[in-house]
């Protein structure tokens, strides 16, 4: 239990964290990896280079400071991060390393402003916050290991087959190498895949949504090949999976994790919306609904660049033919002439609120969406404008959590000031 003095000191640092939070977390990761390079076997190097991990940690530290006297408020966030930590193999013994380097980064970035009282308060607060994470994650490790077909850490799976779904997305069907039972999962969850690639000093771990319904003898992941875009290099792991991994090869998987899951107790209509490879958890949800809840109305909306980039299109259309309660709607922002000739899509451009209102029977539904951040910001803003309650809006980021609130620049552009 933190003293009132400690709580007040932590809260007094909130404005400072708002300004310097990302600088602190950037320096934190630099120091931690210099002191403990073995942790590069766990963390996503691409997210580090793009600054996404630093921003996510800064947001988490900022939230912890804001609610230091009401930590129960951020327990949902703790659980969300805990799922990722468990799937990556982050353990209790890693937390003192994080704490030591975080405090050192705070001291270095803030300089004289980081008084002994502030550093001591943050040391105490970090102990409490770390204890919350360790407690939540311990239960997750236990549940993952003790469930039917469960395991701890990483387990060997053989690539049973590899199916190209579009120009950029390929599915991998994975069966346990030991031939034993595999753990059940909730539609929307993911697994971590640990890769040891030739020429790489460290292992690389990536998280991929499970893209089929649970209850099968295999897991399926559907991976987008991440090409180089502007300042972002090509994705090492996705390229290796696409170009090097073949049927018969072995991949190492964590047990399924994640809190972005379909509420199967909700009988109301459900709207599944995706952009690009964000369709993978949506297809898992769709397949599950078709198999287990055939009376529940489902509206499936997918946005892609064009038909060449549109994965699993035929599968969804076939499901809709078999299940009249399922409707589908395709939105292409750069359709090809072939798409136009085949009338392969329903809307050209982007999914906006008027279009959503024209195809979704009612806002009295449960909405799930996933995809690139600009797509999710647009969908989230449209649903809020429509008046959909927050508890009916469900989404997940691929990678470190971010914010769907519009930035100042986006607000200016939307209002015509730029």
Automatic annotation (TrEMBL):
Residues 152-263 form the FAD-binding FR-type domain. The active site is at 95 (charge relay system), 137 (charge relay system). Transmembrane segments: none annotated. Keywords: Detoxification, FAD, Flavoprotein, Heme, Iron, Metal-binding, NAD, NADP, Oxidoreductase, Oxygen transport, Transport. Its cofactor is heme b; FAD. It catalyses: 2 nitric oxide + NADPH + 2 O2 = 2 nitrate + NADP(+) + H(+); 2 nitric oxide + NADH + 2 O2 = 2 nitrate + NAD(+) + H(+). Binds 1 heme b (iron(II)-protoporphyrin IX) group per subunit. The record marks 84, 396 as: Influences the redox potential of the prosthetic heme and FAD groups. GO terms for biological process: cellular response to nitrosative stress; nitric oxide catabolic process; response to toxic substance. Residues 149-418 are annotated as: Reductase. It is an enzyme of class 1 (oxidoreductase). GO terms for molecular function: FAD binding; heme binding; metal ion binding; nitric oxide dioxygenase NAD(P)H activity; oxygen binding; oxygen carrier activity. Heme b binds at residue 85. NADP(+) binds at residues 276-281. CDD domains: flavohem_like_fad_nad_binding, Yhb1-globin-like. It holds the Pfam family Globin. Residues 1-138 form the Globin domain. FAD binds at residues 190, 206-209, 397-400. The record marks 29 as: Involved in heme-bound ligand stabilization and O-O bond activation. InterPro entries: Cbr1-like_FAD-bd_dom, FAD-bd_FR_type, FNR_nucleotide-bd, Globin, Globin-like_sf, Globin/Proto, Hmp, OxRdtase_FAD/NAD-bd. Its EC number is 1.14.12.17. Belongs to the globin family. Two-domain flavohemoproteins subfamily. In the C-terminal section; belongs to the flavoprotein pyridine nucleotide cytochrome reductase family. Consists of two distinct domains; an N-terminal heme-containing oxygen-binding domain and a C-terminal reductase domain with binding sites for FAD and NAD(P)H. Is involved in NO detoxification in an aerobic process, termed nitric oxide dioxygenase (NOD) reaction that utilizes O(2) and NAD(P)H to convert NO to nitrate, which protects the bacterium from various noxious nitrogen compounds. Therefore, plays a central role in the inducible response to nitrosative stress. This is Flavohemoprotein.
